[in-house]
Amino acid sequence: MNTTDGNPSPPAPVWTPDPATAAHSRIARFTEFVAIRTGTAHADYRSLWEWSVDDLAGFWSAVWEFFDLRSSTPYDEVLDEAPMPATRWFSGARLNYAEHALRDEGPHPAILSVGEDGTTTRTGRDELRRQVGSLAAWMRRNGVTVGDRVVGYLPNTTHTVVAFLAAASIGAVWSACGQDYGAPGAATRFAQLEPVILFAADGYRWNGKEHDRRAESDALRAALPTVRHTVRVPCLGLPVDDDAQVSDWAEVTGGSEQPVFEQLPFDTPLWVLFSSGTTGTPKGIVHGHGGVLLDHHRLLGLHLDLSPGDRFFWYTTTNWMMWNLVVSGLLIGATVVLYDGSPTYPEPGRLWDLAAEHRAAVLGVSPGYLLASAKAGLEPGRDLDLSALRGLGCTGAPLPAQPYYWVRDHVGAHVQVSSTSGGTDIVSGFAGSAPTTPVWAGEISAPVLGVALEAWDEDGRPVTDEVGELVVTRPLPSMPLYFWNDPDGSRYRDAYFASYPGVWRHGDWMTRTSHGSVVVSGRSDSTLNRQGVRLGSADIYAVVDALPGIQESLVIGAELADGTYWMPLFVVMETGHELTDALRDRIGTAIRTRASPRHVPDDILAVPAVPHTRTGKKLEVPVKRLLQGAPIGKVAGREAVDDIDALAYFSRFAR
Description:
Shape: globular
Strand order of the largest sheet: 5-4-17-16-18-19-20
Strand content: 15-25%
Radius of gyration: 24 Å
Number of strands: 35
Largest sheet: 7 strands, mixed
Oligomer: single chain
Structural class: alpha/beta
Number of helices: 23
Helix content: 25-40%
C-alpha cells in the first residue's frame, strides 16, 4: 500500500501505547519537565528525540536534573567542543556511581538472587549498604585506593554486586568474568589489568549440575602475580584449605561500617568490559563513573520506565554487559532480580516462571529464548500470572517478526516488546523503545534519546529505507574513555573512527525507516553479498530458525581462493529430525518467499552445533575464515567460544 505522495505507508504496529498509561510514564513526565525548563513543547517521541540530538547540552543537563544526580562540586560545562572521541563531559563535577546505586531508602528489597536450585536470597537496602561498607573498609585496610583494579571470577549472585559496589565506592576499577571461562581465558583478560584483589567463587550450578571451580580459581590466582589478596566466595559451600593470603567472604563483609564514597571526576574509570576476543586478545573497554551514571538513568528510567520498587529481571551472566545494566537498576531504586543458572532448566519456561514468581515489571531475554518458547508451545500468558509485566526486553541479536506476534498472543497484548540494539562498546543502547513509541514487528521502535543515529551509504551520506552502515554522528557520555593498554588511543580510533573521522561506525548494517523505526540486519563485517547486493544474515535466521525441526542455523558468505563466492546455510536439527532433500526444498522455498530469491543459499548442510561467543552471538566471521582456509588458532581463542568442538567441526569440514 502506498500513500498519495508515492512513499510507502508504514506497516500496522503490533503494539501501540495505551494513552492513559503513556501519560503517566516517566518519559511523559520528563517531556513536561523539558517543556517547563526550556519553553519547548514536544508532541511526540520523534520531536523529543530530534531535540535531544540537536541540543546535547540541553538534553543531558535535563537528564541530570530530572534524576537529581549528586555531585559534590558543580560542573563547569556539559560538554566541550572537541570532536569524538576526544569530547569531555561535565568537567568540574565530582561524583560516585556507587553513591547513587545505594541512595534509595525505600522499603522494597535491593536484590533478589535466585539460584538454579530455587534458593532465593533477599537483600534489603540497609543490608546491602552494610555489606558494601564493610567490604570497602576491608579493601582500604588492605591498601586498595583510587585507580587500583579489583576483579571477580564470579557467577551472577549478590556477592558480585557487593564486590563491584565496594570497589566503585573507593574509586577502584572493577572487572568481572564468569566461571564458565577456564583460568587461562580469565587470565587473558584480568592479567592485562594487573589487579590487586581477586574475588573467586568455589563454583556454580548449570543444567542441574554443580561445577567445582576451586582448582580453576587457584590456577587463576597463580596467573595473576599482582594480586595481593584473594577473597573466596562460597556459592556452593565447598570446603577449602586455610591460606594466609585468602580471606572468607563472611569475614570481609561481616562488619558494621557504612560506605564512604570517594568523590571522583566525571571521567574516572568505573569498570573494564572486554570484547569477545574471537579475533585476538580481548580488548579492555573502559567506561567512566559519570558517563554510565547519566546514560543508565536515561535508558532505564525513560526508556524502560523503571521506577523505585519495580522488579527488573534480565537474564544474563557476569560476562555480558547486560549484567552491568541490570546492576544499574539500583540507580533507579528498582529491585534487581539476579538468576544464576540455565534459562531452560529444569523446563523451557524457567524464565517465565521466575518473572511471574517475582512479579517482574521488565523481563529481558534473547531472541533465541523467544523462538524456543514458541517452538515448545509455551503459554506463559495463560498458565502464569504475568500481570505485573509491562515490558519484554530483547537483545543480543536481531529479533525477527514472528516472536512479536507470539508475545502478543501468548504472553499478553499489554506487554511491550522492547527490542534493543547497542553493545558492550557503549554499555548501552543505540535504538530501543519507550512507553510512548509504537512497536512494529521485526523492527526496533526508534533511536534512543540523545543518540544521533543514522544509516550511511558507502559515500558517507545518510539514507532512509535503505540498508547502510550504523553510525552515530554526535558524542555520547557512555562512549569508552579509552581502551586499556592503548596509550596513544590508536586502537580505539581504529575500532570506531577509521572509516568516517569524527563519526562512530559501529560495524552493523542498519535501516532507518521513514516511519522512524530501526532495523538492524547483522554485522557489516559478516555481510552476505549476492551479485553486488548486500544481504543481512538476520533475514535468513528469521525464516529458518522458526521452522519446525530446526534448532538453529548459521549462514556465511565466503570468497574462495578460486574466485568463486559460496553462501552455505548450516542447520542444527532438533532431536528426532533429519535434514532430507524434501526439507531442503521447504527451507529454500520459505527463504525465497519470506525473504527474497537472493537470500536462498547455495547449499544447505546439517552440522552438530553452531559455535557462539560467550554472550551468545553466532560466530559468522570465524567460520567464514575457516572456510577460506585459516587455521582455527588464528580465527578465535578457545576461551572466547562457548563450544570449541562446534568450531573445530568447521575446521575439519574446511579441510
